[in-house]
Amino acid sequence: MDKKEENAPQDKFNLVYIIFGWLGVGTLLPWNFFITVNDYWKDKFDHNEEVQNDWGPNMSMASMIPNVTFLLLNAVFGHRLKTTPRLLISLIFVIVLFAFTCAMAKIDTDEWQDAFWSVTIASIVLININAAIFQGGLLGVAGKFPPKYIGFVFSGQAIGGIFASVTNVVVMLLGASQVNAAFYCFLIAVIFLAFSLAFFVILSRTEFFKYYLDEEETEMSDLTKATDEDTKEKFLDSENAIKIKDVKINPLRILGQISLYGASVYLIFAVTLACFPPLTASVSSNSNDFWELNNGNYFIPVCCFVFFNLGDYIGRFVAEYIQWPKPGKVGMIIVFVLSIVRVAFIPLFLNCNIAREPESDPTGTFNSDWFYIIFVILFSLTNGYLSNICMMSAPQIVQDNEKGTASSLMVALLGLGLGSGALLSYPVKMLI
Question: I want to staple 21 with a disulfide (CB 3.0 to 4.6 A). Which of 57, 152, 184, 399 is the partner?
Fold first, then answer.
């Protein structure tokens, strides 16, 4: 434990830690519910086959392009803006816009599908702009805290995926219509995000949060108040003091220091989004009778979405406590190599039980359901574990006043990986 942590106020009842996790769930909750209620979008666009067929790619691009753009802008300029107002305003906009999406689920749009498409795409763009501002800012703040805090934010994102996928399965079991299922999912997300807003206000008022967020300002203030020259000298010489001459932040220099962690997190998410869900959701069960229940087939909802999100969360959770490899040059190289190895999942999934042509029977080298389930579990575990190691380690190899910028840069590279993976999913699926 360094001097900064020794002098920090107590995080009573782990309140700050728990709220960081809750906010982590909220960062990707809109996206998780958008992709989970796939049947709802099919129903909404059932009178326009062209729009229906292109909806998935359109939604991905409308999500990823603004998300990546604003994650990059946050990484470069975020340190110049006040943190708390930026997070509060962006979260309020996400809540309002997602409430609009929820309301649209109850409106008959059959007679104006083109206009509904335009309005929905516009709302998705705006939601993802604000979600990116909130996500980038939150992870930038969490990077200033001890490593477990940013780790739990990242784990919270995986919990959000579990929450959305399990909710979808439960709604299917209850027999709700596609429209009602989407409405209830969206409503739950709005309520969750409203609680996130209240919890963030509570978080911003705790002494523990203020200590880490305003550490530089606090220590500079303490220095100016010191009247005794000896006290000033001891303050400047202490391990806990800020190097006043190095106050200016240089994002490019920081990027150079964390470059391998950044490349690793980019590769991790590029490979993940190239496969999940377009490729992984194309696999068929070899035992359909086992998965059919209540007039629905649960193979993909359970084995693809629930298992992936569970494995992703477990991987992130384990990374918080094991934290191997340790931060440093050797650790960066090991993580980078392991990230490259994950490319092997693309041919593994391509050789699972997939229909190669329309109306044809699914075939594949690994045609057993168990092969697919094992691949999904390993795929998700490595995604969660390695990505969390990258996100926790990068801020630890830069100076204290650069930790927030390092975290924001990592989030931007994560976003670039998501966007690249979404684009790669097209050629990858063409390999089927």
Answer: 152
